[in-house]
Design a protein that fits this description.
The protein is α/β, with parallel strands linked by helices and 454 residues long. It has 16 helices and 16 strands. α5 crosses α16. The chain binds adenosine-5'-diphosphate and magnesium ion. The site of magnesium ion has 5 residues, from α5. Adenosine-5'-diphosphate binds next to α5, β13 and α14.
């Protein structure tokens, strides 16, 4: 049956079925060359695809050739969106814009400070017209075109600011498995970096007393206890008191990735505080309440958790909207999945229901630290993945994070300060921006943003 985008029922289907699954791949844009929900100043673009740019992406006067794609609800009249598209293309200095509601597909070209319609077809015709569409905005076509005037600065007029409101509310994701060493912390820090690079505002919370995320994000710069500047202001303080120690007061900026990310650190002392906090029932919901105070400040919060069924795992799971379960898919990790499922069903969701919160949404098991031997990847891995949904009835994320040296190495970076060597860990995007791991984490970011609707 031919592909018919006219059957898309809402804006999100126009985005996913027509743009993500059909147009972008047909036009030659690989996942590392396009971005969804991009914020530039006060402008929010549905999609921005680059003919010649990979990570990290920037849009400025020197941006390479690119195309903006805007998806609308099938009932929307595209004429009503012309002015806004014109504003996007002229103020961002982007040459082409595609506008569609599924029923109709239009391509506009930017002139000096106006745009003109250069292509129009109905959704039904998209397959037969794809070559023509490619001739305007195909990745290869754009690469061959002359760049726009590179001296023109990016101007986002003040009058425009605040006109478009943030479409989505802050989403909270826990990264949890009750087995250790499966890649939870690696996932938290690199997923956070990947999502930050897509223009989202990210907060990371370390709820594991091992504090590996705190280390991996470069907040442990001291080498003796006397200079420990974390123990007096970390995640424990958020849980401890009602009014004091807000998220903003405890969060620190981390430059382990660029742009920087806010981190709520953890500390080995958290372990000692478990009993005290356990007895203080009201402390269990403090993170939920304090995060509400910053819901306009962040698009996404990612929480790292301990490999156990303790209070801190519980707090992470009652606070979050979504769960990612990293797993190496080996027998012990698989057996742990049963504990995770039961814990969520009998304890987490029960408690959530008493707070009038919906059950936790499991985004999926994330295959992590997966061996790269071709035979294994071809034959064994697909069986292991299938077994997760068959035996444990859990969804599996499409992205796979393979075992790669750079993911361990980027933690080992050091910085020389005088005679001292200080730990200076980096995200994999800083350490090896064009490596396979960076690509895999970018794919994971795309998948997570799509599945959570951020
Ligand atoms: N995909 C990977 N490739 C290579 N090393 C990895 C990978 N994922 C994790 N590691 C390494 O394995 C160890 C455990 O990973 P970590 O993310 O800390 O797991 P967890 O938080 O589940 O205990 C760390 O030393 C980390 O650097
Ligand atoms: Mg960890």
């Amino acid at each position: 049956m031919p592909f018919n985008p006219e059957l898309c029922r809402n804006e999100s289907e126009v985005e996913s079925k027509l743009i993500v699954q059909y147009l972008l791949p047909q036009l030659g844009y690989t996942p590392d060359t396009w971005h969804q929900e991009v914020a530039v100043g006060s402008i929010r673009l549905d999609f921005l695809a680059f003919a010649a740019q990979v990570l990290p992406f920037v849009i400025d006067a020197n941006s390479p050739l690119s195309v903006v794609m805007e998806a609308k609800h099938p009932k929307q009249n595209l004429n009503n969106h012309f002015l806004r598209l014109r504003h996007y293309l002229t103020s961002l200095n982007v040459k082409y814009g595609l506008l569609t509601n599924g029923k109709e597909i239009r391509i506009y070209e930017k002139l000096a400070d106006d745009i003109r319609l250069v292509f129009l077809c109905s959704g039904k015709e998209v397959e037969t017209k794809i070559e023509e569409i490619k001739s305007f905005i195909g990745r290869d076509t754009l690469k061959d075109k002359e760049p726009l005037d590179k001296t023109e600065p990016l101007v986002v007029p003040d009058s425009y600011k605040g006109e478009i409101k943030e479409k989505h509310s802050m989403k909270i994701i826990a990264v949890y498995h009750n087995k250790g060493g499966v890649g939870k912390t690696t996932t938290v820090v690199n997923l956070a970096a990947a999502i930050r690079k897509k223009g989202k505002r990210v907060l990371v919370i370390d709820l594991d007393s091992q504090a590996n995320t705190t280390f991996a994000t470069g907040l442990v710069k001291f080498d003796d206890e006397i200079s420990d500047n974390i123990k007096d202001n970390y995640v424990y303080h958020i849980l401890r008191s009602v009014e004091l120690d807000t998220i903003t007061e405890v969060a620190r900026k981390s430059v382990f990735t660029n742009p920087e990310i806010d981190i709520i650190p953890s500390h080995i002392n958290l372990m000692k505080m478990e009993r005290e906090l356990n007895e203080l029932r009201s402390s269990h919901t403090r993170l939920i309440n304090k995060l509400k105070e910053v819901q306009d400040k962040y698009d996404i919060v990612i929480i790292d958790t301990p490999p156990s069924l303790n209070l801190f795992a519980f707090i992470a799971l009652i606070t979050s909207d979504y769960l990612i379960i990293p797993s190496d898919l080996k027998p012990f990790a698989n057996q742990g999945l049963i504990n995770v499922k039961e814990y969520i069903k009998y304890e987490v969701n029960q408690f959530r229901s008493s707070l009038n919160k919906p059950p936790l949404t499991i985004l999926g098991v994330l295959a992590c630290k997966i061996a790269t031997f071709p035979k294994f990847v071809q034959h064994t891995l697909p069986k292991q993945i299938a077994a997760i949904s068959q035996r444990y009835d859990l969804p599996v994320l499409d992205t796979v994070i393979y075992q790669r040296e750079e993911l361990a190495k980027c933690l080992e970076q050091v910085q020389q300060i005088g005679d001292l060597e200080v730990p200076d860990p980096r995200s994999v995007f800083e350490y090896k921006p064009h490596g396979d791991s960076a690509k895999e984490f970018e794919l994971l970011a795309i998948e997570v943003l799509q599945k959570t609707g951020i």
